[in-house]
Design goal:
heterodimer; A: 396 residues; alpha/beta; eight-stranded parallel beta barrel; two-stranded antiparallel sheet; 14 helices; B: 358 residues; eight-stranded parallel sheet; 10 strands; globular; schiff base (chain A); Aldolase_I_AS (chain A); Aldolase_TIM (chain A); fructose-bisphosphate aldolase activity (chain A); FBA_I (chain A)
Chain lengths: 396, 358
């Protein structure tokens, strides 16, 4: 897989596979809306990056692979480091991220890595650019572009996601630095309603972010996380999820987002964390696949689930259950805690533990790779891996 | 409740899935009395009940045709009609493994303040009518919304109004046991190119699915009857492969995998054109998580009508013509049509009528 060329190639402007004999429009005309009064004037999706977006999305959504989410903000990364007794310094963050990106052979199971801005511009402890290490590993670099959640006025104590201001120039700069996909995480809370306002804002923000990202060459990962918090049962989650995804896709369409060049990062459909009834992986798979079949246009190439506080093993089992039959889209993972937990604990901040820690990372990555192919058997999993990671009221 | 879960839940899913059985499709024989009158007058036949009955008997009793047809859409009058020997048409269909369907809309009316755009009527008393039709043997329904492409059309008003009407109709049908065929026809009239049609189709279908979802319609128990994505009637033609690519792409972008089948309308294409385009779609490589089949009116009946010309002695010839088209379209759903169907008189004739009023 020649992913080195992914970074070097300039925007491609030739015939798409779909439109025989008709060229895409020139890059200087990125949005063709003739007049405000002619709403059905021909619109161009994703302008000059269309082919590259499709290629990137397909590469990330390749069989047997998924995403390593390592885009914890400095504050959140601080919590991770604190849990193993380390101070939240740039050096420690650099050391930890170096450990992750340099795990040998990681690219066999990981197709993309989401970075925080600091990491995108950082070098490893050996002085190589993080981005270059990833590309050499056959892993596409991605970048978190949202600016976090803040209270949503007029709502029921809910939040909305910031980050649209200056997003065009930021995404353009990230592209220059080597990023090829972006991520924006907004949340919806079932115990708080969710209110129609919160759902609409979440969906609209995602749609605007997605359109801007595509315009600047980054495949947007669309992430409306329905938080695990709450006592509600799986049917309620299902109901809310169907509403949220209907809004998301409607607004994506209104913003002329190019579906062949996006990825989704949904939460699985499960009972709330405090619900007395638990669901089996088969049930989670059943509900989640039904949601996908009812709401996700088949043009979307990949669905990369978040783990949202599930244990490492739970997240893998659920993913495996969803891949027991062919799906119209690649169904895979974009896990942070569910890939990193045991690795972090094994490292404990000590250089002599780096190799062992990297091995545990590879074990989890391989398990999820097998789950993506529907072949995970769960043999030999450690107790640490089975520990739930749900944190009530979790602030990312 | 996220979507319909009532007593007809499983039956709706089973029937919708059955209609999309590979090798089968729908014969749209639901011309209103006025419209069938135009057909009959084109072959110099008087528009009376007996002639309408005779024509429909000819169609439904064609030996071998029902094997290619998972459903037939009827006009209300026909639902209660019988063969000359006294057997109800719905019985004939049932025995042949064909589901009877019923047109339930009451035609279009203009939307004030638009440039001749329309909405579709028929929601009043629809629940009771659906119940009655179910009792009479119908198992699916059809409602045709119409949109057109122009400088400022379709307007957001027309899109919203028609999408909402389709969604209301759909949930009422499901509550009464009928699988709703959702038909947002974008007329082929105009000189626009295929990209314009694709853009409008995607916009309209996105609005339709949003409305269906908002109205809690059970997608697994519905069918979509869209136009194929083609250049306008006054624009240069393109190959069937190009039609296929644009059409499938539009559906991939808008239609969730939960919907079991697409039953295309022919919208004025000639019999042969409609078949060849459907065939190209089924030959296309790539993702297609739903069945792609036909729901043709004119494109199944044209040669049959001409061959019959209202004469008893022509019935066999007319039935042969219908069987030929049924088999051709059946093959098209499998992507195996070779284009060698015995082209009867009229098979290659365009059936486009400008600004067609149904």
């Amino acid at each position: 897989m020649a992913s080195a060329s992914l970074l070097k190639s300039s925007p491609v402007l030739d015939k798409s596979d779909w439109v025989k004999g008709q060229n895409l429009r020139q890059p200087s005309v990125s949005h063709v809306r003739c007049l405000p009064t002619s709403p059905s004037a021909l619109t161009v999706r994703a302008s000059s990056y269309a082919d590259e977006l499709v290629k990137t999305a397909k590469t990330v959504a390749s069989p047997g692979r998924g995403i390593l989410a390592m885009d914890e903000s400095n504050a959140t990364c601080g919590k991770r480091l604190a849990s193993i007794g380390l101070e939240n310094t740039e050096a420690n963050r650099q050391a930890y991220r170096t450990l992750l990106v340099s795990a040998p052979g990681l690219g066999q199971y990981i197709s993309g890595a989401i970075l925080f801005e600091e990491t995108l511009y950082q070098s490893t402890t050996d002085g190589k650019k993080m981005v270059d290490v990833l590309v050499e590993q056959n892993i596409v670099p991605g970048i978190k572009v949202d600016k976090g959640l803040v209270p949503l006025p007029g709502s029921n104590n809910e939040s909305w996601c910031q980050g649209l201001d200056g997003l065009a120039s930021r995404t353009a700069a990230y592209y220059q630095q080597g990023a090829r996909f972006a991520k924006w995480r907004t949340v919806v809370s079932i115990p708080n309603g969710p209110s129609a306002l919160a759902v609409k804002e979440a969906a609209w923000g995602l749609a605007r972010y997605a359109a801007i990202s595509q315009d600047n060459g980054l495949v947007p990962i669309v992430e409306p996380e329905i938080l695990l918090d709450g006592e509600h049962g799986i049917d309620r989650t299902f109901e809310v999820a169907q509403k949220v995804w209907a809004e998301v896709f409607y607004y994506l369409a209104e913003n002329n987002v190019f579906f062949e060049g996006i990825l989704l990062k949904p939460s699985m459909v499960t009972p709330g964390a405090e619900c007395k009834d638990k669901a089996t992986p088969a049930q989670v798979a059943d509900y989640t696949l039904k949601l996908l079949q009812r709401r996700i246009p088949p043009a979307v190439p990949g669905i990369m689930f978040l783990s949202g506080g599930q244990s490492e093993v739970e997240a893998t089992l659920n993913l495996n259950a969803m891949n027991q039959a062919p799906n119209p889209w690649h169904v895979s993972f974009s896990y942070a805690r569910a890939l990193q937990n045991t690795c972090l604990k094994t490292w404990g901040g000590r250089p002599e533990n780096v190799k062992a820690a990297q091995e545990t990372l590879l074990i989890r990555a391989k398990a999820n790779s097998l789950a993506q192919l529907g072949k995970y058997t769960g043999e030999g999993e450690s107790d640490e891996a089975k520990k739930g990671m749900f944190v009530k009221g979790y602030v990312y | 409740m996220s979507c319909y879960k009532g007593k007809y839940h499983d039956e709706l899913i089973a029937n919708a899935t059955y209609i999309g059985t590979p090798g089968k499709g729908i014969l749209a024989a639901d011309e209103s009395t006025g419209t069938i009158g135009k057909r009959l007058s084109s072959i110099n036949v008087e528009n009376n009940e007996e002639n309408r009955r005779a024509l429909r008997e000819l169609l439904f009793t064609t030996p071998g045709a029902l094997e290619c047809l998972s459903g037939i859409i009827l006009f209300e009058e026909t639902l209660y009609q019988k063969t000359a020997a006294g057997k109800p048409f719905v019985e004939v269909m049932k025995e042949g493994g064909t589901l009877p369907g019923i047109k339930v809309d009451k035609g279009t009316v203009e939307l004030a303040g638009t440039n001749g755009e329309t909405t579709t009527q028929g929601l009043d008393g629809l629940a009771q009518r659906c119940q009655k039709y179910y009792e009479a043997g119908a198992r699916f329904a059809k409602w045709r919304a119409v949109l057109k492409i122009g400088a400022n059309e379709p307007s957001q008003l027309a899109i919203n109004e028609n999408a909402n009407g389709l969604a209301r109709y759909a949930i009422i049908c499901q509550e009464n046991g009928l699988v709703p065929i959702v038909e947002p026809e974008i007329l082929v009239d105009g000189s626009h190119d295929i990209n314009k049609c694709a853009d409008v189709t995607e916009r309209v279908l996105a609005a339709c699915y949003k409305a269906l979802n908002d109205h809690h319609v059970l997608l697994e128990g519905t069918l979509l009857k869209p136009n194929m994505v083609t250049p306008g009637s006054d624009a240069p033609k393109v190959s069937p492969e190009v039609v296929a690519e644009h059409t499938v792409r539009a559906l991939l972008r808008t239609m969730p995998a939960a919907v079991p089948a697409v039953v295309f309308l022919s919208g004025g294409q000639s019999e042969e054109e409609a078949t060849v385009n459907l065939n190209a779609m089924n030959k296309l490589k790539g993702k297609k998580p739903w069945s792609l089949t036909f729901s043709f009116g004119r494109a199944l009946q044209q040669s049959t009508l001409k061959a019959w010309a209202g004469k008893e002695e022509n019935v066999k010839k007319a039935q042969d013509a219908l069987l030929t088209r049924c088999k051709a379209n059946s093959e098209a759903t499998l992507g195996t049509y070779k284009g060698d169907a015995n082209l009867a008189e009229g098979a290659a004739e365009s059936l486009h009528v400008k600004d067609y009023k149904y």
